[in-house]
Structure formats: C-alpha cells, structure tokens
C-alpha cells in the first residue's frame, strides 16, 4: 500500500469513527432507546452498519448509516451533519429522512409521501435503507406481532422501490420479509388497529374536533413568529451583506438571481468577493406558507437550520430554532401541556372511579395534594383532590394500568415514566423562561407530533364529541 492509499484509508476510518461517536452521543443525550428491548439506540445503528459492512467498505455509506436517524430523532439538523461530515454524507442522510408532515394525514398517507421521497434517493441511500428494514423487521416481528402486520405491508411497498439497492441486501431483505410474513400468518395475528385508540385519547382532551383544529391552525401560525428575510442580489459584495446582516442582527438572507429569489446565504459563510459564491438552495421541505401550523414549523426545524416562509410565491420570512423561545410559542406549548394534563385527568376519572386512584399514589405525594386542596378550599377556590396532584402523579396513576398505558401510546412503563419526566421538565423550563430550544427540543418535537397525529385522526374520523372537564 502506497502512502496516498494509506492516507485515504485512514481518512475513511476516521470519518466512520467520527460518525459513530457523533450519533451515539446524540441519541444518548436524549436517552433514546429501542422501543421493545430498551437497549441504547446505538445498538440498532451498529447492527445496520454490520449488515452494510458485509457488502461495502464505502466510508460515506457507513457514516450515513450511523447518522441516518439523528435528524429525525435528535436535535441535530441536516446543516449540522453537512458541517461535521460533508455534503455527500448529509445528502445520504437527507435521502433517508422522512419529509411528510404530521398534518399531511394519517400514517398511510404520510408513508406514501415518504415512499415517493425515498424512490428518488440514490442507490447508496437505498442500500442503507435495506439494512435498516432488515433489522427493524426482525425486531418488530419478534416483539410486536400485531404492529408487524402493518409494518410488513409498508416494507413490501418499500422493497419495490429499493430494487436498485445492493443486490445481496435486497435478497436478504426479501428473505426476512418472507420469513416474517410466514410467522405472522401462522400465528393468525390481526392488524393493530390504533385509530380507535387515538380517537378515544382525543376525546379525553375534552375538545371537539373543530376546537382542537382551531388551536392548531387559527390561533398561532408560522407568520406570528417569523422574522423578515433580508434579500441581496447574487452579485452583491460579501462585505456589504456581512455589514448589513450584522447591523440588523440577522444571520441569514435570501439571494436573488435575475430578480428572483433562488436560495439563501448565511453570514457565517461569507468570505471572498461575491454573495453568489455562497448560495444554498432551499430544500423542498424547508419552505412553508405563512399560515402553516406551528407543528409544521417544528417539523421543518427538526431537519433544517432554517424554516422559510412563502407568500404568493415570494420567500420573505425566516424562522430558526431560537424563535421557539418567543412568548407566542411558549404560550402555545404551555397550552399543549395543559391539553395533556386535561387528558390525564379525564382518563383517571373514567378508568379509576371514585377514590380508587389513591392506592397508585405514594402517601407523601397524596399528603401534599391534600395540603394543596385544603389551601384552595380555605381560599374558596373550587377544586377536587385529583386536580391538586402534580402532573407526574397523574401520569403515574395512568401508567400503573396496562389499559391506560396503551391508550397513551406507550409500550412500557419505563418509556412512559421517561416521557412524562421530560414533559414536566419542559413545563418547568417554560414557567421559568429558560431556553427550551436548546434544552427541550426532542420533547417538543415528540409532543407536537403526537398532538398533530391526534388532530389528524379527528379529521379523518370526523369526530365531533367531547367529554366535559
């Protein structure tokens, strides 16, 4: 091996090692674990990489395999991936990142949108997806046969558009699919019908479908938190753009070519002579309408550094993650947490009638609630003892019963405790005006996806009823 070959091999090894460390830490920071085994999430990533190593030594493929879920599941964005690992790896991760919005419809509709996105992906990205499918199919079929019925149907559709992935992995994926189908059929397992559970959960919020949709759509929208987007001609000097952006305290601007906005520039990139040297083109899922829901804004910012607003064909607004700290968003998020607490209360009232919930709360926590209740009564404030429990106490009651645990959408008490702890942490950070964009991004993204999913189910089933609070 000559010196150049050795340098190339060392660089490739270094790229994969950096990706492994980056992905492992990113998932560990949010305590991300596999749904069924509760193993650290990097165990799944390592399994995918090992499958890929059987067919390729392409360092960019292996690096992207480690990183392929970071944008969807952790605070990392595609811009972060590009900055750390280069454009080629970032493009692979982008190919593997879902583009559907929670507001696009139910699971079937969203999966169809994501399938069309993946169909346009590179052969290398499809090879990674094959390895991902193989590991997920094995895991889901083993631990959750009911959901496996749905997953395997989706896997079959994916295999049709992944036929130009690596032949060996494609063949292996088909074998795993066939084996899983045989196992499910032999057990006579019916599909997991989750829509009814979603509608029941939605009813527990205590709002009708139209009321909930107004909360998502009409009260707060993207334009309420967007900043004006400055614009420069492509031929503008970088020094002029830097000076203007610094004066306005902006770090991004749109770039015009022949009078039409074609992309954007970032102040941190501006070197050399002309702005055109630093143009970055808008990703298809990076531009939304001004009246888009805040859930859509958060969805975009999960993937990208910036979310851009379009009005009558003109891109003239921008939102970054730090804008999530604005008062309007904080009010909206606090409302979402309040909806969750209302749901908990109504579920307890339905499934733990009378005082039957008392035994699920520790003596100390119950005594504290009684103290709060007595003080409210002294002030002539109407309340009952259940309403005086802390959010975490209400959650604890619900996760002690398998039926209510499943209605809340949790596969285990351990997962439920973690999510509820994060929810309470987010509420505390909101109440004390701490930086939620940095500290609570993963929880914000999960909560908004879940509530938007409920909203979609309400729309699909034309649910109109409500339960009094």
Helix content: 55-70%
CATH architecture call of the largest domain: Orthogonal Bundle
Q: Would you identify the regions where 5 or more consecutive residues have pLDDT less than 50?
A: 458-469
Major sheet: 4 strands, mixed
The structural domain count equals 3
CATH homologous superfamily label of the largest domain: Hypothetical protein af1432
What structural category do the secondary elements indicate? alpha/beta
User: What's the end-to-end separation, in Å?
Assistant: 74 Å
Instruction: Give the CATH level 1 class of the largest domain.
Output: Mainly Alpha
| Strand arrangement, major sheet | 1-7-6-5
Compute the number of helices. 21
Question: What does it look like?
Answer:
With 469 residues, this protein is of the alpha/beta class. It folds into three domains: 3-186, Hypothetical protein af1432 (Orthogonal Bundle); 222-323, CBS-domain, CATH 3.10.580.10; 327-461, no CATH class. Helices cover 60% and strands 7% of the residues. It has 21 helices and seven strands. It has helices at residues 3-29, 42-53, 59-67, 70-73, 78-85, 87-95, 107-119, 123-143, 145-161, 167-186, 195-204, 209-217, 238-248, 294-303, 327-351, 363-378, 391-399, 402-407, 413-431, 436-439, 441-461, and strands at residues 227-228, 230-233, 252-257, 260-266, 287-289, 306-311, 314-320. The strands form two sheets. The chain has a four-stranded mixed beta sheet with strand order 1-7-6-5. β2, α13 and β3 (252-257) form a beta-alpha-beta unit. It is globular and about 75 Å long. It starts with a helix and ends in an 8-residue tail after the last helix. Residues 458-469 have low confidence and may be disordered.
